[in-house]
Design brief:
235 residues; alpha/beta; TIM Barrel
């Protein structure tokens, strides 16, 4: 596995997508998804200059974070159970997968106990897939103000996981709808939301063309996942 070549290839593809959309490539942040990969691999990427990693499971991340350089940043991108909120607040610099008011309140509670403010993204199930977590667009708009009122939470934008498609072009409407929702949320809040986290290994170029500021790429950089570490109930 040539991590350096894979990383360079992703960076070049992001730059090309940004050029097509008349964007500066610096406006897109790469979140390298390290789920299922060992700390050794993460350290190799850190040596290549990668500093931001996304993990799906709190328990797995706790082990790896302790084995990696302290300069790295970690985002939680997988579904969060309320009983894992204390650890999530402690270990992650952003939680990208907030999908209910109840969860937001639990995160806020632990953030208050930790005397910190935690940036979050609100996860939206744009396509309405029954197999995926996330707000419906309507549910998001209904609870937005209440979440925004929580003192130790900072809403920084929206996140979605698009349906799998053989052709990435088919999920463009999902990314476009999330961008529209961000505009609707900004109107409700009267404030700008800086981030749209959307696009993964198979569709990130289309997401960038539709305004993604964060893309979550794992297999296109790291290859197939190894056996998951310490499989737990939050998988």
């Amino acid at each position: 596995m040539d991590l350096a070549a894979n990383l360079k290839g992703i960076q070049q593809r992001v730059a090309a997508a940004c050029a097509r959309a008349n964007r500066d490539s610096s406006s897109v942040t790469l979140v390298t998804v390290s789920k299922g990969h060992p700390a050794e691999t993460i350290r190799e990427l850190a040596d290549l200059g990668v500093t931001l990693f996304g993990e799906n499971r709190v328990q797995e991340a706790k082990i790896k974070i302790s084995q990696c350089p302290s300069r790295l940043q970690w985002h939680l991108i997988g579904h969060l159970q309320s009983n894992k909120c204390r650890d999530a607040v402690h270990f992650f610099s952003m939680i990208q997968s907030v999908d209910s008011l109840a969860l937001a309140r639990e995160i806020n509670k632990w953030a208050e106990k930790s005397a910190k403010t935690i940036p979050i993204l609100l996860e939206v199930n744009v396509a309405g897939e029954s197999s995926k977590f996330g707000y419906s667009p309507e549910g998001l708009l209904m609870e937005l103000k209440e979440i925004n009122a929580l003192p130790k939470i900072e809403i920084q934008g929206l996140m979605t996981v698009a349906p799998w498609a053989q052709e990435a072009e088919k999920v463009r409407p999902v990314f476009r709808r999330l961008a529209e929702l961000k505009t609707e949320c900004e109107a409700i809040l009267g404030a700008s939301l800086p981030h749209l986290s959307m696009g993964m290994s198979g569709d990130f170029e289309v997401a960038v063309e539709e305004g993604a500021t964060m893309i979550r790429v794992g297999s296109a950089i790291l290859g197939p996942r190894k056996a998951a570490i310490n499989r737990t109930a939050d998988e």
